[in-house]
Amino acid sequence: xxxxxxxxxxxxxxxxxxxxxxxxxxxxxxxxxxxxxxxxxxxxxxxxxxxxxxxxxxxxxxxxxxxxxxxxxxxxxxxxxxxxxxxxxxxxxxxxxxxxxxxxxxx
Length: 107
Known about the structure:
It is a single chain. Helices cover 0% and strands 58% of the residues. By secondary structure, it is mainly β. The mean pLDDT is 87.
Protein backbone atom coordinates (compact mmCIF):
# COMPACT_ATOMS: atom_id res chain seq x y z
CA UNK A 1 0.00 0.00 0.00
CA UNK A 2 1.29 3.44 -0.92
CA UNK A 3 0.39 6.99 0.01
CA UNK A 4 0.92 10.35 -1.68
CA UNK A 5 0.54 13.88 -0.37
CA UNK A 6 -1.80 16.22 -2.22
CA UNK A 7 -0.30 19.72 -2.33
CA UNK A 8 -1.75 21.94 -5.06
CA UNK A 9 -1.59 25.71 -5.39
CA UNK A 10 -2.90 26.31 -8.92
CA UNK A 11 -5.74 25.29 -11.23
CA UNK A 12 -5.38 22.53 -13.79
CA UNK A 13 -4.47 18.87 -14.15
CA UNK A 14 -2.09 17.43 -11.57
CA UNK A 15 -0.56 13.96 -11.77
CA UNK A 16 -0.82 12.47 -8.28
CA UNK A 17 0.43 8.98 -9.18
CA UNK A 18 2.54 8.37 -12.29
CA UNK A 19 1.60 5.48 -14.57
CA UNK A 20 3.10 2.08 -13.76
CA UNK A 21 3.54 -0.06 -16.91
CA UNK A 22 1.42 -3.21 -16.83
CA UNK A 23 -0.35 -2.27 -13.55
CA UNK A 24 -3.62 -0.63 -12.50
CA UNK A 25 -3.69 1.95 -9.73
CA UNK A 26 -6.50 1.31 -7.21
CA UNK A 27 -7.37 4.24 -4.96
CA UNK A 28 -8.56 3.04 -1.55
CA UNK A 29 -8.96 6.35 0.29
CA UNK A 30 -8.40 10.07 0.06
CA UNK A 31 -8.82 13.26 2.04
CA UNK A 32 -8.90 16.68 0.39
CA UNK A 33 -9.19 20.08 2.09
CA UNK A 34 -9.38 23.42 0.29
CA UNK A 35 -8.22 26.68 1.83
CA UNK A 36 -10.15 28.78 -0.70
CA UNK A 37 -13.81 29.68 -0.51
CA UNK A 38 -14.81 27.79 -3.67
CA UNK A 39 -13.01 24.84 -5.24
CA UNK A 40 -14.02 21.92 -7.42
CA UNK A 41 -12.04 18.77 -8.07
CA UNK A 42 -12.31 15.57 -10.10
CA UNK A 43 -10.16 12.44 -10.37
CA UNK A 44 -9.07 11.14 -13.80
CA UNK A 45 -7.10 8.24 -15.22
CA UNK A 46 -5.27 9.95 -18.06
CA UNK A 47 -8.32 11.50 -19.81
CA UNK A 48 -11.03 9.18 -18.44
CA UNK A 49 -13.10 10.61 -15.55
CA UNK A 50 -13.05 8.31 -12.50
CA UNK A 51 -15.36 10.49 -10.40
CA UNK A 52 -17.83 13.25 -10.94
CA UNK A 53 -16.98 16.87 -10.17
CA UNK A 54 -16.94 17.45 -6.41
CA UNK A 55 -17.20 20.77 -4.60
CA UNK A 56 -15.40 21.79 -1.44
CA UNK A 57 -16.16 24.26 1.31
CA UNK A 58 -13.26 26.21 2.81
CA UNK A 59 -11.59 24.19 5.57
CA UNK A 60 -14.02 21.25 5.43
CA UNK A 61 -12.38 17.93 4.45
CA UNK A 62 -13.80 15.71 1.72
CA UNK A 63 -13.00 12.16 2.84
CA UNK A 64 -13.65 8.81 1.18
CA UNK A 65 -12.43 5.42 2.43
CA UNK A 66 -13.10 1.88 1.17
CA UNK A 67 -12.19 0.74 4.67
CA UNK A 68 -11.27 -2.94 4.42
CA UNK A 69 -8.74 -5.31 2.95
CA UNK A 70 -9.46 -8.69 1.41
CA UNK A 71 -7.10 -11.44 0.18
CA UNK A 72 -7.76 -10.36 -3.42
CA UNK A 73 -6.70 -6.78 -2.62
CA UNK A 74 -8.22 -3.68 -1.13
CA UNK A 75 -11.77 -2.69 -1.72
CA UNK A 76 -11.40 0.32 -3.94
CA UNK A 77 -13.08 3.63 -4.50
CA UNK A 78 -11.95 3.65 -8.14
CA UNK A 79 -9.12 2.46 -10.35
CA UNK A 80 -7.42 3.51 -13.54
CA UNK A 81 -6.83 1.38 -16.60
CA UNK A 82 -3.64 -0.65 -17.02
CA UNK A 83 -0.63 1.62 -17.45
CA UNK A 84 -2.47 4.89 -16.74
CA UNK A 85 -1.71 7.58 -14.16
CA UNK A 86 -4.10 9.04 -11.58
CA UNK A 87 -4.70 12.77 -11.95
CA UNK A 88 -6.60 15.40 -10.01
CA UNK A 89 -8.12 18.37 -11.80
CA UNK A 90 -8.86 21.49 -9.77
CA UNK A 91 -10.77 24.62 -10.74
CA UNK A 92 -11.86 27.85 -9.12
CA UNK A 93 -8.83 27.57 -6.89
CA UNK A 94 -8.39 30.75 -4.83
CA UNK A 95 -5.90 29.07 -2.54
CA UNK A 96 -4.21 25.79 -1.65
CA UNK A 97 -5.70 22.30 -1.88
CA UNK A 98 -4.07 19.75 0.41
CA UNK A 99 -4.60 16.23 1.65
CA UNK A 100 -3.50 12.68 1.00
CA UNK A 101 -4.41 9.64 -1.09
CA UNK A 102 -3.72 5.93 -0.46
CA UNK A 103 -3.52 3.36 -3.25
CA UNK A 104 -2.36 -0.11 -4.22
CA UNK A 105 -1.07 -1.53 -7.49
CA UNK A 106 -3.05 -4.32 -9.16
CA UNK A 107 -2.46 -6.58 -12.17
